[in-house]
Amino acid sequence: MDPLPNDGHDVALLLMDFHNVVVESHGERGARATSAAGRALEHARQRGTGIFHVVPHYRPGYPELTDGPPFDDVKAADLFREPGLRDGIPAVLKPRTDEPVVAKFRYSPFYANDLLHMLRMRSARTLVLCGIATSGVVLSAVRDAWDLDYRIVVLADACADNDAEVHRILLERLLPKQATVTTVASWAG
Questions:
Q1: Residue 33's closest CA among 51, 15, 7, 49?
Q2: Which one is the CATH code of 11-188: 3.40.50.1820, 3.40.50.300, 3.10.620.30, 3.40.50.850?
Q3: Which helix (H) or strand (E) holds 57?
Q4: Per-residue pLDDT tens digits of the chain, which is 189 residues long
Q5: Is the pTM higher than 0.85?
Q6: Number of C-alpha atoms within 13 angstroms, CB side, residue 31?
């Protein structure tokens, strides 16, 4: 097997849905994934890997969301409306000024935003994914990135899901069909 790409201009680390609300809603699993994502972030910074923070963020009135499930709860709780995109990101993952923060509006990190454009401008060919939840943003990212012809690496310990069995099945059985699933330590090598 080829070595895992962990640096270079054509590699991009995507830190997806690491927002305080999302992390806290996943309890200890969310905290562990955030800590692991922090280690991946530090490695990426040391190696010059492209770094992209992708977080849910909406305008007043939620024009990006349809009425009905699953978004009614988001609207009712007035979530993801901080003044700035960076405001809800946990301290351990705080973006540097040169690290783009991208708003996302659906489960996929690529839907209706400028993430793909920025990845293309970086000439990224490999995406390294960390995120919460495994059954949400991570699954959507893998599927969409596969269709977009990216090489995909999922850092399993930097992902979390409230359903431990779904998390396990996705990481052990489904996602390996389209991505290399590994750990932060193995990726950072």
A1: 15
A2: 3.40.50.850
A3: none
A4: 456 776 677 999 999 999 999 999 999 999 999 999 999 999 999 999 999 999 999 999 999 999 999 899 999 999 999 888 899 999 999 999 999 999 999 999 999 999 999 999 999 999 999 999 999 999 999 999 999 999 999 999 999 999 999 999 999 999 999 999 999 999 998
A5: yes
A6: 3
